[in-house]
Specification:
Layout (H helix, E strand, L loop, with lengths): L2 E8 L4 H5 L11 E2 L2 E2 H10 L6 E5 L3 H7 L6 E4 L7 H11 L4 E8 L7 H13 L5 E6 L2 E2 L3 E4 L3 H4 L8 H6 L6 E5 L12 H6 L5
Parallel strand pairs: 1-4, 1-6, 4-5, 7-10
Antiparallel strand pairs: 2-3, 6-9, 7-8, 7-9
């Protein structure tokens, strides 16, 4: 089976977080159950079979890197982070080894994605090696993370602005996408504002 890497996108400006009164420079270092959100995502990825793991940083770079101190994540800096998520995806793909047959794309603001879901996405890809993508479904809607096979990397490098994996999936034949149920994992909850954190499933 081709090796499956992982990219955590953690470079965004967190403008909605700060506009909503967030005290931290980025939502990614706000804590959920005592751990920075981005570290929860990275720890889940590291507990899975995906290797290597690349974390793309940009806005509040120092704070995010400090939150990841001591992990085995490789760091890739995106100097163009303000242009949108597409530039961060390009930075992550560029940092992957040439033998990576696929990569999972994780969002740094989704604290409830777990290693079990990541590994089930990898298992689904192994069972359908001709697939171009694997996505979890929750409540009838596709969620994250998404697995992209190497044949999609070139197209991903041409995305612009805030186009991400969802834009890629919209452009390929439905039969090339494997969907799996998220099951007990949370493939939809993300944190954009302090209110999201206060009212979400991890709220005290």
């Amino acid at each position: 089976m081709p090796s499956v890497a992982a990219i955590v996108l953690a470079a965004g400006r967190a403008s909605r977080w700060r506009a909503g009164g967030g005290a931290e420079a980025t939502k990614l270092v706000a804590t959920v159950e005592g751990m920075p959100i981005v570290r929860r995502v990275v720890e889940a990825a590291l507990a899975s079979r995906a290797r290597p793991l690349v974390v793309v940083v940009g806005h509040a770079r120092e704070a995010v890197e400090n939150a990841l101190a001591g992990t085995d994540a490789a760091i890739a800096f995106n100097p163009n982070f303000a242009s949108g998520i597409a530039s961060s995806l390009r930075a992550g793909l560029t940092a992957l080894p040439s033998d990576a047959g696929a990569t999972l794309v994780l969002l740094g603001d989704m604290p409830n994605v777990d290693a079990a879901l990541i590994d089930r996405l990898i298992d689904a890809f192994a069972a359908a090696p001709a697939a171009l993508a694997v996505a979890p479904v929750q409540g009838g809607r596709r969620g994250n993370p998404v697995l992209l096979a190497r044949p999609l990397f070139e197209a991903a490098m041409t995305l612009d602005g805030d186009e991400g994996a969802r834009r890629l999936l919209a452009g390929i034949a439905p039969g090339a996408i494997v969907e799996i149920e998220a099951g007990g994992s949370d493939a939809s909850f993300d944190v954009d504002t302090p209110d999201d954190l206060a009212s979400g499933p991890n709220a005290p």
